[in-house]
Write a structure and sequence with these properties.
alpha/beta, D-Maltodextrin-Binding Protein, domain 2, 5-stranded mixed beta sheet, two-stranded antiparallel sheet, 6 helices, 14% strand
């Protein structure tokens, strides 16, 4: 696989992992996390989108973010948090209203995050995906509650990528081109990202 083809494929995967999810973070009215939201037109206008991921999945997530950033005016500012401190950091941030726009979550914690109102309803955005039926059904079911979608899968080891708070003044873009399957399966090279203090 050529570098150009791989980069295009990663950009598509980035769109799958980030595009629909990031868009969903821009749907809520100001003043709260989780819950129903009023639609907002997506715009690729250079908005900065904040995202947290665990150190154990940083290679893959960094590749997704790099590909997304390379193909969009909007930019994802990724913070890598040490694995052992991640759940405490998310819990503390939820309690203080300091969550990022997007978080990566393990399937074990996703139902609890939904019940706590940390994740927002992204059903409209998920239903609009032309590849919705190709998303891993088992992982999709973990991100569903009462017939609504709150998360989409990114990888089988880090299957959740979910929006967390109101950003009604922010706008995100929909992905430009999305593949149905991961290209080639080769592991991307690690790129440095900034790490959060614990």
């Amino acid at each position: 696989m050529s570098h150009r083809t791989r980069a295009r494929g990663l950009a598509g995967i980035a769109g799958l992992a980030l595009g629909a999810v990031v868009l969903s973070g821009c749907q809520a009215a100001a003043g709260g996390g989780g819950g129903d939201a009023a639609p907002v037109t997506a715009t690729d206008d250079g908005t900065t989108i904040t995202m947290w991921t665990r150190s154990s999945t940083s290679d893959f997530t960094t590749a997704l973010v790099d590909a997304y950033n390379a193909s969009h005016e909007n930019q994802v500012d990724l913070t890598v948090i040490p694995f052992d401190a991640y759940q405490q950091k998310v819990g503390s941030a939820a309690g203080s209203g300091q969550l990022p726009d997007v978080v990566s979550s393990d399937v074990v914690f996703t139902p609890n995050y939904i019940q706590q109102g940390i994740f927002r309803d992204i059903t409209t955005e998920v239903d609009a995906l032309p590849f919705k039926d190709d998303l891993a059904p088992g992982h999709m079911s973990v991100g569903e509650q009462d017939g609504k979608n709150y998360a989409v899968p990114t990888t089988s080891t880090s299957p959740r990528c979910s929006t967390t708070r109101s950003c009604s003044r922010r706008r995100a873009s929909t992905p430009r081109r999305l593949p149905r399957r991961s290209p080639g399966g080769s592991r991307p090279q690690r790129r440095s990202t900034r790490s959060a203090a614990t």
